[in-house]
Amino acid sequence: xxxxxxxxxxxxxxxxxxxxxxxxxxxxxxxxxxxxxxxxxxxxxxxxxxxxxxxxxxxxxxxxxxxxxxxxxxxxxxxxxxxxxxxxxxxxxxxxxxxxxxxxxxxxxxxxxxxxxxxxxxxxxxxxx
Length: 129
Fold this sequence. Notes:
Blueprint: E1 3-7, E2 10-13, E3 18-25, E4 38-43, E5 49-55, E6 62-64, E7 72-77, E8 82-87, E9 96-103, E10 116-119, E11 123-128
C-alpha cells in the first residue's frame, strides 16, 4: 500500500519561504514512484481542495496554479521517492493544509480528485502578515 507523508510546513511571516517534502513508500520495482505524476493540493478549512502544482513522472515537466506561479517550484527525487515544493514570497492567503497526491498516470492532465489514488495526511502552512 502506498503511503505519502508530508513534512516541512510551519508558521512564517509574509514574504518568507518554506520547503515542503513528501516521502513516498510502498512502491515496488514493478510499480515505482517514478512511474507516476505527483501533485500538491491545498485546502483551507471549510473550503474545497485547490490544486497547486504537478510534476510528471520523470520530473521534466511541471505545472503551477496561477496563484503560485513564479513563487513556487515543484521537484522530485525519484531515487529517494520524495516530492518537494519550494514556496517563496509566501502570502497570508497561502495559509492552508498542503497535501501531496499520487496521480493515476505518468503525465498530469487536469485536477479531478478521483484521479488521485493516494493522498498524504497533509502539512499545515500558516503565513502571518
